[in-house]
Design a protein that fits this description.
- Pfam families: NanE (PF04131).
- The protein contains nine helices and eight strands.
- The longest helix has 14 residues.
- Helix 3 packs parallel to helix 4.
- It is globular.
- The termini are far apart.
- It is of the alpha/beta class.
- It has a single domain, classed as Aldolase class I (TIM Barrel).
- Strands 1-2-3-4-5-6-7-8 form an eight-stranded parallel beta barrel, surrounded by five helices.
Length: about 220
Amino acid sequence: MSRLDGGLIVSCQAYPGEPMRDPRTMAQIARAAVAGGAAGIRLQGLDDIRAGADLDVPVVGLVKAGESEVFITPTLEHAVAVAVAGADIVALDGTRRPRPDGLSLADTIARLRAEHDVLVMADCGSLDDAVAAEAAGADLLGTTLSGYTPERPKTTGPDLELIALIAARCERPVVAEGRIHSTGSATAARRAGAFAVCVGTAITHPSTITSWFAEAVAGAAS
């Protein structure tokens, strides 16, 4: 946990069908991010987690599965698989919505920890989610799902208000994640009370980054 304190976590993910959707590619991007100063790496998919097993920074692992609203490491079985693949921190849906396997978040965390020495990051969408996730035993509280559940509006940038609310109410560290697209936003998230800041798209998704520049160039006055 101390290695992430005040640091940057870089999320290295590519969507299905994209040219970079390959575990080796994601591992290479992760290594480049570590070389640039990343304190931690977030990887999605068991093969990607295995490919990043030799990274010398903490790895936050998850899988996206299923068709329900809860799809970030949605079941105990998925959480165990992420731990076995080599993640140091298992990220899972930390909302109060029903989980596909019928287990509570507290049961999921307890059963996972009974067999695996890992930390748990709860991807939350609201202050109430974070409070409940802390009570359930989560080690880290992420703002990952802010704006993706009905409880919070989708902000243009990071949900700084939610970061501050969780930091003031909860004892567990807050990881600011979601729509952090500039160094200024990352700084603002940290100042709002984030223990660590997680950035993905703005660092590791070239298709989106290219589109930002392409639109800017096309829209510029000649």
